[in-house]
Amino acid sequence: MDTFKKISMWTGIVLTGMCGVVLLGAGKVSSGTLLIAMTFLMVRPIKRFTLPRWLKVGLICVVFAAVMWNISTTDLPHASNMEICGGEEARTYTSTGFKFLDQVLYIFSGFLAQASPS
Prior knowledge:
This protein has helices at residues 2-26, 29-43, 53-72, 82-85, 88-91, 99-115. Helix content is 72%, strand content 0%. The chain folds into 2 domains: 1-73, no CATH class; 77-117. It contains 6 helices and no strands. α1 (2-26) runs antiparallel to α2 (29-43). The protein is mostly helical.
């Protein structure tokens, strides 16, 4: 059980950091910075400075709520002018019908457009 707990903890830390990198690459600087900072705080290399568990959980919930709010403010391209004024991420974007999932996929396609070679 201790091994499973360590594996799941480190998996969560790595996924949080990777999501921060994706958000930074897609232009969501504040959300990406928050997630990267949260990753460093979750790793917490200084053992002397310990926070109570309830404070750590509350801080993680607040940061993820702020990131979700920032993602939900993403403007999606309209279907009518997607080819005219949209970038590469707008051309690869397809609607799923769920607004938040569409915004996440739009941000991820923006990251892929930035990461792809020209």
